[in-house]
Design a protein that fits this description.
Helix content is 45%, strand content 11%. It has 223 residues and is of the alpha/beta class. The protein folds into 2 domains: 2-98, 3-Layer(aba) Sandwich (Rossmann fold); 107-216, Rossmann fold (3-Layer(aba) Sandwich), CATH 3.40.50.1860.
């Protein structure tokens, strides 16, 4: 298995990579990472740089083919699965659900209320709604926001919006965080490093699903 970290978890939100690798080791999963990992091309595709994206896809396909590819990023998952051909791809939320079902990971349930943000790429685009919620429910009480699943609100980071229109991206993130705060949750969880980066705020802690499991799930690793 290749753990494809993605640009954001690899470069900006490195705690996500650390948490993911810890969980993989705890479950006894044989995996490796690419020291020279390149961008999956999602941003190029979404912002109209099709030729450059196709060049990137061709290069990556030669490296990634014939392997199971585990992704942290919802955008990477959607891109590798739908815009590449013939790759075997699984998102970390799906894989964690499998590990829990197979008793390779177990967690301690806490008296904790959390809410969950469906990212666009994982939710509406890939129809993955239940697995992240099942994983969360193994550790905490999930309280839902007003807009969820197919009707979830975009965090504002994707499609080049955060780069081209940062004020709009911030407004969208604020709207989503306000919905999360209205639930009374203590934490806002997301399955996408890009969403986590944009949803960060001073009033409510935002965590990736893997970071949440490591911090609150009662898992320990022998050093």
């Amino acid at each position: 298995m290749i753990y494809f970290r993605g640009c954001t978890a690899r470069e900006k939100e490195t705690a996500i990579q650390d948490a993911t690798e810890k969980l993989l080791r705890l479950a006894g999963i044989d995996y490796h990472i690419l020291n020279d990992e390149k961008c999956c091309g999602s941003v190029l595709l979404r912002t109209g740089f099709i030729r450059q994206a196709q060049e990137q896809i061709q290069k990556n396909t030669e490296i990634l083919k014939d392997e199971l590819i585990l992704t942290s990023c919802a955008g990477c998952y959607k891109t590798l699965k739908d815009d590449y051909e013939g790759l075997d791809v699984i998102h970390i939320s799906q894989f964690l659900k499998q590990l829990i079902d197979d008793d390779k990971l177990s967690f301690t349930k806490k008296d904790l209320k959390v809410t969950y943000h469906d990212s666009c790429h994982l939710g509406r685009h890939s129809n993955i709604f239940d697995e992240p919620r099942d994983v969360i429910s193994a550790v905490a009480d999930l309280v839902e926001m007003e807009n969820i699943r197919e009707n979830s609100i975009c965090c504002g980071a994707g499609g080049g919006v955060k780069s081209a229109y940062p004020e709009i991206a911030s407004q969208m993130a604020e709207s989503r965080v306000n919905q999360a705060k209205e639930t009374g949750a203590e934490l806002l969880l997301t399955p996408c490093p890009f969403c986590k980066l944009n949803l960060k705020n001073d009033d409510l802690e935002v965590m990736d699903l893997t970071e949440f499991l490591v911090k609150y799930g009662g898992v320990y690793e022998d050093e």
